[in-house]
Amino acid sequence: MSVSVVKIVGPSYCGSTALGCAMNTGEGFFFGSEIYRQLKKFREEAKDGRFSSCDFCGPSCEYWSSDLHATLRNLEVDSLAEVYELLAARHPEITVIVDGSKSTPLPDENPDFIVVPTKHPVRLLASHIYNRRTRFGIDSEQLNVVGQLLEESWDEHQRTVARAANGFLKSYRDIFALCAEAHVFRSDEAHKDGFQAFRELEEYLGVSRGTFDPESFSRVPSHTIGGNRVPIWLTKNASGQSIPNNPRFEYYSSSSSLGDWKLDDKFEHVFRPPTLDAISSLPAYQALCELLDYDARPPAHSRSIPS
Ligand SMILES: [Zn+2]
User: Fold this and answer.
1) How far is the CA of 234 from the centre of ligand 1 (A)?
2) Distance, CA 53 to ligand 1 centroid (Å)?
3) Which one-letter DSSP state was computed for residue 113?
4) Number of structural domains the chain divides into
5) Residue 106 is part of which domain span?
6) CA 98 to centroid of ligand 1, rounded, Å
7) Average of pLDDT values for 6-26?
8) What is the DSSP letter of 240?
9) What is the pLDDT of residues 248-291, one digit of tens each?
10) Which are the contacts of 302, defined by CB distance < 8 A and separation ≥ 6?
11) H or E element at residue 170
12) How would residue 128 be classed by pLDDT, with cut points 50, 70 and 90?
């Protein structure tokens, strides 16, 4: 293949979109997010055959262009490797494609590098629960309200939270079983020590130190198709485009950050201390902490980090 491929593999909420956007600042790096959305099988099953358009440009993207889509359609492309080739052939400036498709590589895929983002399990669970709050009968977008209602009706929800912890445990076990050589990237600790985790990632990828600029990734648009919207909103905001007015973005705007690199501390609002205690005693949660090598105690209050 004419380009190198970095595959980001992890469950939802692991921080893959922000990581990809940060890698997109590297010269020659192109982060396309969920590239599997261009495959014939996905389009036919989930999109009635239609292509997902670029989150940043909309339908008139120079990368996910109508010309590329026509070719993908005519050739009935159903393998990621072919999408990478066709994209790279049109854009010789791309030397590394970062694919955040997240699922474990299929046997016919052969990415040059695999990066597995992790976060402390309470952060993964907080995002999972918050995004499914309506299924918990919680009809509020406010994090504190979700936290209060979750605490008040914990007995009712305990089993669902345990199931979610089991889901993350199974995902990461499968990933580590299939991607033994992968580079683990702790996305919730990546800002520490001057973004040391990014320096280690650069070393793993064999690129020069300082290639990635996580602190101001919004200056370089990522032409993503799918994934967490917040990094995309940040980029649109930085380029003067309008962004939605919703509590989620307001929360992120106010959360601790180092530049564009936001710290995910939703768990502090979604899980009050009694809920955290209850979660800490779930066996699946404990096994997940052990697998990901995190202390079972919830992380210290993150607002102490300089912003
Ligand atoms: Zn675009």
Assistant:
1) 15
2) 8
3) E
4) 1
5) 4-304
6) 15
7) 95
8) T
9) 676 666 677 888 898 888 899 999 999 999 999 999 999 999 99
10) 256, 263, 265, 268
11) helix 154-178
12) very high
265 C-alpha to center of ligand 1: Å? 30
Q: Please give the share of the chain, as a percent, with pLDDT higher than 90.
A: 71
Amino acid (one-letter) located at 171: S
Calculate how far, in angstroms, residue 55's C-alpha sits from the geometric centre of ligand 1. Answer: 7
Q: How far is CA 286 from the centre of its chain?
A: 23
Tokens standing for 298?
């919830």
Q: Are 155 and 276 in contact (CB under 8 A)?
A: no
Interacting residues of 239 by C-beta distance below 8 A, sequence separation 6+: 218, 221
Provide DSSP, 174-233. Answer: HHHHH-TTPEEEEGGGTTHHHHHHHHHHHHHHT--TT---GGGGGGS----BSS-HHHHH
207 alpha carbon to ligand 1 midpoint, in Å? 25
Structure tokens that stand for 285 in this block: 């949660």
Distance of CA 111 to the CA centre of its chain: 18
Query: Which is it for strands 257-258 and 261-262: parallel, antiparallel or unpaired?
Result: antiparallel
Return the CATH number at 143: 3.40.50
Question: And the tokens for 146?
Answer: 């979700």
Q: How far is the CA of 137 from the centre of ligand 1 (A)?
A: 37
Task: Please tell me the distance between residue 140's alpha carbon and the centre of ligand 1 in angstroms.
Answer: 33
Distance 297 CA to ligand 1 centre (A): 41
The DSSP string of 247-270 is HHHHHHHHS-EETTEE---THHHH
Looking up tokens 């190198």, which residue turns up? Answer: 4
Confidence check: pLDDT of 305 > 50: no
For residues 304 and 31, what is the distance between their CA atoms, to the nearest angstrom? 31
Tell me how far the alpha carbon of residue 285 is from its chain's centroid.
20
Q: Reading across the β-sheet that carries 96-102, which strands appear in turn?
A: 29-33, 96-102, 4-9, 113-118, 183-186
Residue 107 pLDDT level (bands cut at 50, 70, 90): low
The reply to whether the predicted model has a pTM over 0.90 is: yes
Q: With beta carbons less than 8 A apart as the criterion, state whether 13 and 119 touch.
A: yes
